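During the second half of the funding period, the structural biology subgroup turned its attention to how the target accommodates small molecules. The most pressing case was glutamine, which had performed well in the primary screen but for which no bound structure existed. We therefore specified the complex as follows and requested a full 3D prediction, including the ligand pose.
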Amino acid sequence: MRFGIAVYPGSNCDYDTYHVIRDILKEEVSFIDYRETNIKDFDCIIIPGGFSFGDYLRPGALASHTPLTNAVKDFAKKGGLVIGICNGFQVLTESHLLPGALMPNIHGKFVCKHQYIKVENNETPFTNKCEKGQVLKIPIAHHDGNYFVDEETLKKMEDNGQIIVRYCDKDGNISEKSNPNGSIKNIAGVCNEEKNVFGLMPHPERAAESILGTEDGLFILKSILNSI
Ligand SMILES: NC(=O)CC[C@H](N)C(=O)O
C-alpha cells in the first residue's frame, strides 16, 4: 500500500508517522510537499500533526488553502482514503472535508498525556481491526482539540455512524471527567458521510511501539491496510 504524508511548513509529526509506516508497518511511504498537486498514485493520504503555518489564523486554516490540500479534496471526493491526525484533523475541518470545528481547549491549556478512547464504529476503513466498544490508549497533545458541531449536524452524524471515537476512562466510561478538552459529547474522532475521510485528535503514530507504553495506535493504522 502506498501512503503519502502531507508536509506543510510547521508540520512536526511527519517523521514519526513516516517511521511507523516504513519501519513498523513495512509499507511504501513518501512525503508530499504542500505545493504538490499530483497525488493520484497514493492509496492513502495522511495529514500529520503539528503546527502548520504556525497555527495562524486558526490551526489548519492556512494549510486548507494550499495546492496539496486542494488536491486532497479531489482525491477524497473520488473515494481516496484520507486520515488527519491532530493538526491534520484541524486541516480537514477547515477544508470542510469533515463537519464541525476544533476550538481552543475549554481550560485554555495545551494538554499532553495518554488518553483512553472508545471505538464507537468499527465498520470503517480506519477501525475495522477494532472491536466495537474497544478502549484504546493513545496519546493526545493539542491546544485546540475542543470539537464542536451544531446539534442538527451532530444528530445526522450520530445516525450515520460518523462518530468514530470518544474520550473515555480506562473502563470505557464516557463522562465529563474523561473529557480532556471540552469536546461536545466527548468526541475524539469523526468520519465524513462516505467514511473515506477520518480525523482524530489522538496520535496513533505515537502509540505503535511497546517502548512508547502502548501499541494501540496499530489497531487504527492496520485497519487502513486491511481496507484496501
Ligand atoms: N500535535 C498537534 O498536531 C497540535 C495541533 C495544534 N497545533 C494544536 O495545538 O491544537
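Two results from this model are relevant to the next phase. The chain has one domain: 2-226. The radius of gyration is 16 Å.
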